[in-house]
Design goal:
Blueprint: H1 7-11, E1 21-22, H2 33-49, H3 53-71, E2 78-81, H4 84-94, E3 102-106, H5 111-118, E4 126-130, H6 138-141, E5 149-155, H7 167-176, E6 180-184, H8 196-199, E7 203-207, E8 219-223, H9 270-286, H10 288-309, E9 313-314, E10 326-329, H11 333-342, E11 345-346, E12 348-350, E13 353-357, H12 364-375
């Protein structure tokens, strides 16, 4: 039982976790019953009525409002995208970057964030990488800022070692220096509280298939609506302030929507949007702060058990610098991944070892089973249960 909520009741909503030790939510979360029910409702309506489109689009706006409330912003600052990569590319191409300008990023951060900006090199934009250290905050970036620096882009939480960077201090520095700030919250959202206004970002992007519990194919983009000068690099009727009623394109009616809808291209991933509405209801009922605290407790337990085995943790150990839910164990993935699979433990290989990523449904028993599987290969002393 968690100190923060009834984790046993939550666990029952995820049937897959009863079939294996699931420690891979940083890759993809299992499907929850309420999420599955929302998708099934969409399919049933499409099957029986060929699609109540107006009802479906109303639900899109209801979900948009839920996302906005979840991030502490207004609904007209939220756009739906395909994934994090698309969100990052939309942001990179909307910024007013010119030849000779530079953007600061962290070396070794997620590649799809980096590629969105590296692709601007063809326009003469320079991308400068600062070192990735255990702590990254405003002071980490400050020495690299010069008169041609226009933006900083970074992840909130790293996928490969569970760093949790001080994005609030970086955002405050960007405001002081009149720099744009772009943040990838994919590995944070749904587990770590995200307050978009407190971050001070121009754009925040994410997918939804990790902490937000939705199958792949849906992304989110927050845009600070005070930055009206940030316009989309592409355009569709759905992006316009006024969609022509006769759907005939005209060159004199191309003003983008005053809302984040300016960054959308029309038809939505409707099943995934339905799923997201259900998952946000579930997350808010539990409380994202409670989910974070629960995962921190499990992480403390994992670190203590690894210390017993004298097995090193890759990445930060202190709560103030680590993500609550992502831990990389210094065991060579090539040697260990098959062993975990054979023993019914789902984890991911990462750069420096085996990634253990926690979800709202995990328990201390899951951690103990993981440790016992490690011990079976002769590391540490056998447990009493073994």
């Amino acid at each position: 039982m968690s100190r923060h909520y009834d984790v046993d009741a939550v666990r029952k909503e995820f049937p897959a976790v009863e079939r294996m030790v699931y420690l891979d939510s940083g890759f993809q979360t299992p499907l929850a019953r309420p999420v599955k029910a929302a998708i099934e409702l969409f399919l049933r309506e499409g099957f029986e009525t060929a699609g109540p489109k107006s009802i479906w689009l109303d639900r899109v706006e209801q979900t948009r409002a839920k996302v906005a409330r979840f991030l502490g912003v207004t609904a007209d600052e939220i756009a739906f995208t395909k994934n994090t990569s698309e969100s990052m590319n939309i942001a990179a191409n909307a910024l007013p970057l010119q030849a000779g300008d530079n953007v600061l990023m962290i070396h070794g951060d997620h590649p799809n964030n980096a590629y969105a900006f590296l692709n601007l090199q063809r326009k003469g934009v320079e991308v400068r990488f600062i070192p990735m250290t255990e702590i990254v905050d405003a002071d980490s970036f400050a020495p690299f800022i010069d008169e041609r620096t226009r933006a900083i882009s970074m992840s909130h939480v790293t996928f490969h070692a569970g760093h949790r960077f001080d994005i609030e201090s970086v955002g405050a520095m960007c405001v002081r220096n009149k720099l744009h700030f772009v943040v990838d919250v994919m590995q944070a959202i749904g587990v770590v509280p995200v307050n978009a206004k407190a971050i001070g970002a121009s754009f925040i992007g994410s997918g939804s298939h990790k902490g937000l519990l939705v199958p792949q194919g849906l992304g989110l983009l927050y845009w600070d609506k005070t930055l009206k000068e940030l316009e989309p690099a592409y355009l569709a009727a759905a992006s316009l302030a006024e969609i022509p009623s006769d759907l005939i394109a005209r060159a004199d009616g191309m003003a983008p929507s005053p809302a984040a809808r300016r960054f959308e291209l029309g038809n939505f991933n409707l099943p995934a949007v339905h799923a997201l509405g259900a998952s946000l209801d579930m997350i808010e009922q539990i409380g994202v702060q409670n989910i974070q605290n629960h995962c921190f407790d499990l992480g403390d337990h994992l670190i203590a058990r690894l210390d017993e085995l004298d097995v090193r943790l890759v990445g930060p150990r202190e709560r103030k610098h680590r993500a609550p839910h992502i831990y990389v164990i210094a065991l060579p993935a090539a040697d260990w991944l098959g062993h975990f699979e054979e023993n019914g433990v789902r984890v991911s290989p990462e750069r420096d070892g085996i990634r253990v990523s926690l979800g709202m449904f995990n328990t201390a028993t899951d951690i103990d089973r993981l440790i016992d599987v490690i011990r079976r290969r002769g590391l540490g002393r056998p447990s009493v249960a073994a």
